[in-house]
Amino acid sequence: MKFHPLSKLFLVRIYGNRQLKTLPGQNTRPTSARVREALFNIWQGAITDCRWLDLCAGNGSMGAEALCRGAIEAVAIEQNGKACQIIKQNWQQVATKEQYFRVIRGDIRVKLKKLQSQQFDRIYFDPPYAGKLYESVLNEISAGNLLSSEGEIAVEHNPQQWEAKPIETLEICRQKVYGNTVLTFYQKASPSQES
């Protein structure tokens, strides 16, 4: 991350050596380059033409990366108004005319209810580590049937602050550890495993 003195913003580099803006401080902590690269290596081949949902989107770097790699649609939910402006700027910079994106400002649990008629192929969820959003948001994704049948959710968390477990119709399919950061991946549970 590099500081840009004129704009009082920080810059983050993503796929294709593109620079994105991000707000200073930890309120919208961007996913580290190491974790971001690892995630897109894991999901390599699944991003082109996918529908991407970015939850607690921060500066939108994950959705921007997905757009750069060929996602057909990206939707972000973020509570911080300034961050929403940054996401829009960042996504306008990388999106093509064929790609659709929108940024939704507000409480993630409320805004997810309004997406219930949609499904997404890849969902990235990176809330404040010390927050209490994990289970309620995963339950909302499950209840709203927001994950496509072949889709996956990646949840970024610190294992000392939240322990991942199966949620409603979602099962854990793998976990990857990067220092103090864990990515827990969920997919739809097979009918025999749903409770």
UniProtKB/TrEMBL annotation:
Keywords, sorted A to Z: Methyltransferase, Transferase
Xref: NCBIfam families: 16S rRNA (guanine(966)-N(2))-methyltransferase RsmD
One Pfam family linked to the record: Cons_hypoth95
GO biological process: rRNA methylation
Signal sequence bounds: none
Protein name: RNA methyltransferase, RsmD family
A GO MF label: methyltransferase activity
Metal-binding in keyword set: no
